[in-house]
Amino acid sequence: MSQWLPHTPLWQWWGRWLSPLLGPAGRGARESVVSVWTYPAAMERLRALRGLFACVGCMPRRTRRRERSRVSSPVPTCAVTLMLQRLQDHEGDRVQAYCELESALREADSRPPCGVVNRLLAEVSQDLTAAQGVTANVRTAASNVLVALARTHFTLVMAELQSHLKATGDASKETVLIILSKLFSTYAPQCIPFVWLMLAGLRSVVGQVRSGQTLRIACAVLKQWLDGVKIALSSGTQCPWPAMEKEQIYENLHKLLFSVVQNWQDCQEEKDKQAVLGAVAAMLDVLLQEELHREHVWEQLLWLIHPCQEIQDTCRVAKSLTIFLEALQGIDCVIPKDKFQDITSAVFCQLYDDTKQHSEAGRAELTHCIMLQARICPEETVLFLQSQLGDDWEAGCVAALGLLGALVCSDEPMMTEKLPQIVEAVQHLCSDPRTQVRQAILHFINDLLNANAWSCSAWDVVGHIFSEFSRTAGRRAAGNLSAQEVQEEGALQGLCMDILGSLDASVRGMSKLLWPRLLLFVVPAQYTGMLIPVSRCVQALSEREDLTGRRIEDLDPHFVSSMFQGPMLTPQTLLARLLVVAGSPVAGSELQAAALLLMKNLHSRFHKAVGAMWAVEIPLLLQCLEGKEESFSDTAEFEHRLLKFLRASLDTIEDEAWTEALSCKLSQRLSSSASSSGEKSFLYKALGTVLGACKGVLHVQEKLLQHLEEANMEESSEAQGMISLLSHAAESNFQTVLATLTTFASRLCKGWKARISRCKKMELDSRRAHATRSALMLAHGSLALRASKEQLLAHLEGDIVGNILMLYSCSCRDLQNNLALVQSITDFSSAFQAVGDSSCFNPSLKSKLLEILMDLMKKYYSGIPVSPVPFKVVQALEQLSKLKPSFESKDMREMLVLCCKNIVTHPSAEVMVKIRKSQQAAQYLQLQQRSLKALGRLMAVLLETEPTGGFFQNIVHVLQRSMTSDNMWERKRALQTCSQLLAVCEELQRGDACEHFGSLVGLLAPLTCDPMPASRQLAITCLSSLLRIQAKASNRVSETGDIRSLCEGLHACSVISQLQTSSKMARIVCKNFPLERTVDFMLAIKETIRRANGVRVRAAGKWMTTFLQMHGKDICCNVQPILYILRSCTSSAQQSTFVPFLCQAVVILTRCHTEVMVDNFSRLLGPTDSEMWKRIRKFCLQRWSQ
């Protein structure tokens, strides 16, 4: 062998690699390659080289686990050998043995032979790689032995560790990595030459480990070794590697870098993320030391971004780029501008590429990449984003705004200097019409306000929020948007409100920015929806500082500028606006509450006198809105309380000039409000309340006349609002309001019948003029309700009623005029009646009013179209009848007949069918029920004012025809009226009903079997009331229970069941029947038989025969009249149905009163007797004359 070794080129190759790799052999200087075969130390290095080759995969290596046999050695036995033998024989505690072995290896003269080292490495590796059965203490002790062994046999230990790193599925990687860390801490200079091999081994670890402690240890070891490499490269001494090996290190480091980024970018735990970032930063720090490799890193970054253009989900690529950029933050290296521009452009284009469906995570990662670039190169990033703002591509502009907003929110100190530049660039986009851009600008403003409110001095961001809100409201109100556009504009409005409502008053500069600038946006109507967030802001500001006083230099310059450009923001202007919002139910309770809170927090801005009062009263109003107070029922109640609060506030202020100024502001708002506006109704009432508090007569008259002339009374809302204004103003200024009304009414009626110009005639005869007359009539009635007793008695007949009749005489007397007249009569009659019984109304004037009402009743009747006039007339008659002196009996009878004819008799059955099929069915049925109830109340009033019983008889006579009518709807209405009449008699304890007991029972009895269930129920109700009245009048208790217990039988569908139940009721009623009313009963039955048919006739016969069976023997004096009634019944058209009952009745009477009946039958027949009566007469004479 010695002959060819010096001549073999392989030795030269080995010489180049062994000498720098293994270092000095033995104890002397560096030896030649030939001497390797001479000394044992050289053999040790060869074995190490063999292990290193196996580590990098150059040659196969047998597993040490299979080489369990001991290696014989000529070296004498030493302490290390003895301890190793104990380990191999498993004698004693392994931890203790390892500790003793470590101590022995650390002795200065300890250098075990190679055979012992091989056996020791095999034993230690067995404990390190064991999957189970080995404790953590044993592993730690074994690893310490390897560290101690490396003092003398470093290459063998390193080779062993590298083999474990390369092994697949080896469980010892965590321990091996810890050992590598300890080796570097102890033998750093000796570790440096093995860097390229260690990097190759770590690549296998990266491919097998995904998270956890092993990953963090691997990152720490990598960072530790690379820090040593960086020191070695920057120390200025000779490079410890040959040029080829150095390139190999860089190559392995490149591969490891991208392997780490690819495999460890999905780490979830924060500790894992930080470890990976530290490792990547260490690798980049080494790679960026030299220019050549630095360019390679930038190219790799661009290569990393390139896949974004080809895949849909860029989340993983973005994560990889994030790791690189975060690592670059900690490195003192500047990215070339061209490379930075390419990276930024690529990432930004992916961020707003509409062709890709980015996930939320992917979009967040891309955004984070831009933010990292801004930290690394802030100037270039800001300039790039600003350049995108002018792009015509909407998505790019929106993305740039979003990124600028994120930069504003960051805590980077560099952004402080860039903020004015960014704000100025965004400000130029304010007029952009694109929806997404407008939304992005609002989001940017939100970020800006929450981060640096003081930086907004150059741009009125608050004004832009309100302008955008007004802009969206105007576009939606135009009505020419698609459904999607309406939704987008609504979202913008909501965003404006959210931004303002979420502002933090504690942010530096926010107070100066918002106050008092927010007040400018309270008054304009287009900002109504923003009052909720404005209220929250003002409340937050008021809790932090006093808002009443601030020097001019402390105010926002935009506020100062607006104050000089726009109208003056006076306390009255502000209060008028807030009152209107608080009193408008259309706004919603939340907006109303916001207005009230603004009033409470800004009370010192209005008047110094209201602070204490508002502090108490406004929370009560807020409780009403929140529904906390049980007594609060509806919107009208809250409005009443708010107006009462306004009047109390004005009384507290006691400043006539201030009050008149408030009335002027309310008047201005009223004049400028549209008729369809939801707030106008409250404005009328609020202005009336304020005018009521004014003491200046001329001022009140001026405002009243102004709005009387301006109001368009053709619109019902305007007319009702004007009436409200006059009524509220009259509470404290009755004389002034009435005088103003008289003046204005005279203008409308002046020259009505005189010769005037055609133009004036057309003006007075216009629809608006007639509508105004109607409204003025209603206003006079409302004025009467507000007047005190003295004012009413002094002005009712001459001024109020006189003006009403004058206006009516000049009107066209259409439906609107007639309704206004009737309602005004109702109002002033009710007002006059309320002042006391001692007051007497003018009899002639009362008769005149009655005549007018009766004429209206004759003109209208219930039919199609449905007219409310009869109902209103009955209401007016009710109130007018209460006034003294009472009407005469003739007038009362005429009134009763006409009302019953209009309300009970009409409409006919045919018209009723048409009504029920029309669209006005529900309206009519509701109006009909109200009319019937009003008629009942009118009859009650007439009964109270008519002490004699003649009026009740008139009522029964009027209702009799309707209760026996063929029209079932008419019978139902008559029964409802009768039930109300009897209820009144029962309440008043009048005996009128007892005198007509027989007639009423005779009319009600057949109706217990009426085809309509409601009519049957009403008939039972009437009979029950009648029995109770009879019992009270006779001072006795009814012998039987209430007939209401038999109602279920009448609800049955079977006619037989109904007739049986009706017969039971007949027996109950007949037991309590006063016999002196027998003839009345029979006459009423006769009337039913004459006009009715079907089941009602049978029910009448049942009741008649039941009565005769129970009381036939007791009615001797009434036999002849009864016989005459029965005789007349035979000529009825319904005689075929009634004949059985007629015959039964005659038989009952003949048995009870034979002589009287035979005597009557013996008389000669009359010329009008029917054939049926002749046969009955013949039968009775043959049977009972014997």
CATH class of the domain at 79-275: Mainly Alpha
What does the main sheet amount to?
Answer: none
Helicity range of the residues?
over 70%
Report the CATH architecture of the domain at 79-275: Alpha Horseshoe
Terminal residue distance: 177 Å
Domain Maestro-like HEAT-repeats: 969-1171
Organism: Phasianus colchicus
Protein name: Maestro heat like repeat family member 1
Keywords: Repeat
Description:
The N terminus is likely disordered. It contains 58 helices and no strands. The protein has a domain of 197 residues: Leucine-rich Repeat Variant. With 1186 residues, the chain is an all-alpha fold. 70% of the residues lie in helices and 0% in strands. Helix 3 packs parallel to helix 5, helix 19 packs antiparallel against helix 20 and helix 45 runs parallel beside helix 47. This is Maestro heat like repeat family member 1. InterPro entries: ARM-like, ARM-type_fold, HEAT_MROH2B-like, Maestro-like_HEAT, Maestro_heat-like_prot, MROH2B-like_N_HEAT. Pfam families: HEAT_Maestro (PF21047), HEAT_Maestro_2 (PF23210), HEAT_MROH2B_1st (PF23221). Keywords: Repeat. It comes from Phasianus colchicus.
